[in-house]
Amino acid sequence: MFGRKPVNKAKLEHKLYLARETPEPVFDLSDCSLHDVPTGIYSLCRVFLKESLLLNNNSLTSLSSGGELKDLQLLKILNLSNNHFNNLPDDIHLLKNLQELYLSNNQLRKLCDSICNLGNLQILDISCNLLKALPDNFGKLEQLKKLDITENKKLKSLPKSFHRLHRLKALKLEGNCFNYPPKDVVLDGIEAIRRFICDDIGVNYEFIVSDHEEYQKSESKTDDKVDSVQAKLWELEQLKEQKVKQFLETERYNELMQRQELELAIASKTDRDKLLAMLAEQQIVLDEELHKIQREKETERFRLIEQLQEEENNTHMMVNNLLALDSQPLAQLIEQEQKETEKLLTIVNEYDESLRKDDILKAMQDILEQETARFKQVDEDRMVASKSILEQETELDGKLTDILRNQDEYKAKLVNDLKIDTDLQKAAVATLLERGDARSWGLLQQIKLVESQLARLTTIEIDRKKLQMNQHLNDLCDQRIGLSCLLMSLIDQQKERQSQLISTLQDMEENSSDINDFWLKQLPEGLSQAQKNIDPSLAQALLVNGVIHCLPFLAKLTQSQYNLTEVTDSNLSDAGLNSGNDRRRILDAFHMYGKEKQLNKQSNIPSAPPLLDEASAPPPEEINTFTTVECVICLDIECQVIFVPCGHLCCCHHCGSKISICPMCRVDVEKVITLHANI
């Protein structure tokens, strides 16, 4: 590989030029140090009607790179001698008009069988190769006249089809090396070889004299052709000198063009360097601006993280206070409930004695008078109809029967409606009494407070995930689970209190003297005792000070019209609070609540009159650390349900009813709790 001779490109281009320009049928690519046949050579032979292709004295090993061999159908002479061929392609038979094939001084070890299909082949030179045998159907080359197989030392025999070569007149071989036919037969000549093979295979030998005479005539014609070829070669040499001059002029022109291209390349390189320098400066400026924007974003992110951390600390403190509540009812709360129950029973009994039913009785008397008048009118109509139309008496009796039946059904419907109204009145009175009950009211406020803290914890977790702050998520999970357990306990206490109130009302109904209108009479009293929801800011202040469990004792104070900051220790003692520590904390919570309301009022008062003209720049956007929690599934409706046991508040009622796994923590949902109010 290291001693591989380079291709003589100048000589190759010159010969390609001559092949295109000269009208001679010879395509000469010999002695160009070719390793592969140039691409497109075969198609050029077909286009320019070349009959001779000379590829001798090169380093070829294959014919595949030149194109398709079927393009060489017009070829008559192919010279491949002095190359490095190991074998010939199988499609060599496509050269149907080939008459002369020169393969000497190669490395052929075997001839392909398709070479025997060259029916017009007359001269075959395969000397100086490594052949061991000739193809068995070698006798199909019936037009073969000259055969040279010398210097093939491993070739020891001739094929038995050799006797069919009737036109063979020149055979070159080394007789001393042959085993078949014997060397004495080989030395006697072609006819002796043919006769020996015919006798060996049992075929009659035929000697064709006309072939020998034809051979002599062809020899004389060949000599004439040689003279004409030499004359043409002289003309070609002169033409060659002219082409060489033209080639040199072309080379000088190409050199001039190369110089111009080099100058253009240098100029373009200079411009490119300037452009790259300018782009580098612009890139530096852009990088500085990008670093500045990144620093601003980092500063903004740290500020958001600090706000989130502060809010998380406040929530953590309030959650701990909620979890520290005692789930068992206090003795003071039970005593206060008993007093409230006795007072309620006394008020109901007094009100029951003072009620009158004059209006109800008068209304019923009016209804009876109207019914009596209606019956009289019906009787009069019946008498008139019976006197005027006797033949329709039977039909009128049937109609009167239908009217009476409809009246009975109407009365039954009125009775059912009255019963239904009684149940509705009973349910309304129970609801109003629950709203007026101090303990139920306190439980409801605690439930709403726990729900608000669960909403805040869920919002904090979502914000931390958006900011990729995954620390302390386990602490948030523990707090949510604790709050969800507390929420379940408060809901159970609320249901138990509802059942106690309903049982009390049933006892009152049994002891009442007027059972029919008992629930109707209780509605005004229930409306007068219904309490409003506590301010969320006040509930948060009580939670921060650790006295949220005292809400039932503060029901009357929070519903009153006077300022809570003016409440004294004696007022709290009269409300049933015996612990001095609890009273002190409650007063601190009231003062904190009053200060917060005062700050809110001051923030709503403008410090200067509004400007008449529009501002020259838009106002800065407010940064909201916590936003309204929306359903993480539909992203449309606010969250309405809490999942137990994880405590996440992240879905609306519609989406939460269709799933069994929490969409945030992937924990199985054991129970779904609907919020009592929007948070």
UniProtKB/TrEMBL annotation:
**Which Pfam families does the UniProt record give?**
LRR_14, zf-C3HC4_3
Question: Matching SMART domains, A to Z?
Answer: LRR_BAC (SM00364), LRR_TYP (SM00369)
- RING-type domain ranges (all copies): 631-666
Q: Which InterPro entries match?
A: Leu-rich_rpt, Leu-rich_rpt_typical-subtyp, LRR_dom_sf, LRR_domain-containing, LRR_R13L4/SHOC2-like, Znf_RING, Znf_RING/FYVE/PHD
Assigned keywords, A-Z: Leucine-rich repeat, Metal-binding, Repeat, Zinc, Zinc-finger
The terms describing its cellular component in GO are: cytoplasm
Q: Which superkingdom heads the taxonomic lineage of this protein's source?
A: Eukaryota
**Example GO molecular function:** zinc ion binding
**Phylogenetic placement of the source organism:** Eukaryota, Metazoa, Ecdysozoa, Arthropoda, Hexapoda
Which Gene3D superfamilies would you find in this protein's record? Ribonuclease Inhibitor, Zinc/RING finger domain, C3HC4 (zinc finger)
Q: Which organism is it from?
A: Callosobruchus maculatus
* Protein name according to UniProt: RING-type domain-containing protein
Coiled-coil residue windows: none
